Fold this sequence. Notes:
Elements: H1 13-40, H2 45-60, H3 64-86, H4 96-103
Amino acid sequence: MKLVVQVKLLPTTEQATALEATLRACNAAACDVAQLARDVGCYRNYDLRRHVYQGIKTDYGLGAQAAQHVIKKVADAYATLTANLKAGRYGKPGSKRRSRVEANPVRFRWDAAQPYDRPNAVLAAGRSDGVDLDHRRPA
């Protein structure tokens, strides 16, 4: 049985800074992965992993699970974009709006949501278990 719980983080100033840096790194990585996916024409989750997984980990200092989440986030964004284009939500083929959407890669705001699950979440008493870039557990 899976239990989903919504929690409110009350981080210290130092923890908040580290979490924000991690969130920024994840979303910057997602933007780069989206650009590469557009350039290569590869939008599936597992196919994208072959192209970008190691680069995300080394270039952005993210852990394995965060890198997987970034790749999945990009793949899902392109799946949604494709469905919306197919449904005509960006106008008819050849329209100005649709052409603009089709020409540009998916972009992510610096504060866009990023999934944190148990191995990635801040746990008890100010202890960090692999959440942020500053306090990652050694491999």
